[in-house]
User: Which sequence fits this backbone?
């Protein structure tokens, strides 16, 4: 499923922590990694180019060694331009299956950091994007970080849209590959139901519960997996962020555009908020666009 991945990196403790968290991706079939450092034109000025690029290459070699220790085949590349454009271009042209970027754990008042890299990559993604939440602890470069088991408990929020169905196909493959604990969740949006549809809430609840149970049964056919179902009522973003904390979710898998998607908008508001604020890592599956060739 994710045989070849691109990892967006830079010279920072956060990037090093992110690299230390990736050992578990082998369970998703990852074998090859491309470490990509993207420089802006001002960083390649001839007066500083040789010195700066030597430092960059040294950092890439250290990160490459960390990934090799985890069992991956690793290559490195330095390119010039905007990371949001370059990583998507390379992923499409060279048929990489996933893009990976790091983001620090933070409070709900925080923001996706990593120099804004995570936000930019997700905004323009044409391939799945994994945002890795890195733990706030010192990094041991010689062994993976124990507190970063991304696949320990997977949350799949769904609005039953076409994009959610696409994301569910990825979840199914993850269960087939050995994921052992999954929570399926649907949030009945209070802002939509309360004004005009309150009298039908019980009807909607019964229908949505049946849909969740059907997804649960489908996962049971794929592997030895524990599946919990959560049907909640309220603000989807707020309820999911609370659920992530309460259930100690390690990874959220979801479509990046749900029902009501407008192409010009960065993300559906729920996936946007989870990508931005969740304490768990987030795997976003983009909807297929009309101009996609893949």
Assistant:
């Amino acid at each position: 499923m994710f045989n070849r991945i691109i990892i967006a990196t830079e010279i920072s403790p956060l990037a090093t922590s992110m690299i230390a968290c990736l050992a578990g991706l082998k369970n998703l079939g990852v074998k090859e990694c491309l470490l990509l450092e993207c420089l802006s034109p001002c960083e390649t000025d001839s007066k500083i180019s040789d010195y700066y690029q030597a430092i960059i290459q040294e950092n890439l070699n250290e990160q490459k060694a960390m990934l090799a220790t985890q069992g991956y085949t690793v290559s490195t590349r330095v390119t010039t331009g905007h990371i949001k454009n370059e990583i998507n271009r390379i992923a499409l042209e060279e048929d990489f299956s996933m893009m990976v970027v790091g983001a620090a754990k933070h409070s709900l008042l925080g923001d996706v950091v990593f120099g804004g890299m995570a936000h930019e990559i997700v905004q323009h993604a044409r391939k799945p994007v994994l945002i890795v939440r890195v733990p706030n602890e010192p990094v041991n470069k010689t062994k993976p970080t124990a507190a970063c088991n991304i696949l320990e408990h997977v949350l799949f929020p769904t609005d039953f849209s076409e994009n959610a169905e696409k994301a569910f196909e990825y979840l199914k493959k993850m269960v087939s590959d050995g994921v052992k604990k999954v929570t399926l969740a649907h949030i009945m949006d209070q802002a939509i139901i309360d004004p005009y549809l309150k009298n039908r809430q019980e009807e909607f609840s019964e229908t949505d519960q049946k849909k969740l149970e059907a997804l649960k049964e489908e996962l049971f056919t794929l592997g030895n997996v524990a599946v919990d179902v959560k049907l909640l009522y309220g603000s989807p973003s707020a309820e999911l962020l609370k659920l992530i904390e309460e259930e100690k979710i390690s990874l959220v898998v979801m479509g990046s555009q749900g029902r009501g998607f407008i192409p010009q908008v960065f993300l559906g508001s729920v996936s946007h908020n989870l990508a931005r604020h969740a304490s768990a890592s987030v795997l976003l599956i983009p909807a297929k666009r009309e101009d996609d060739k893949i």
User: Anything to note?
Assistant: The two ends are 15 Å apart (CA to CA).
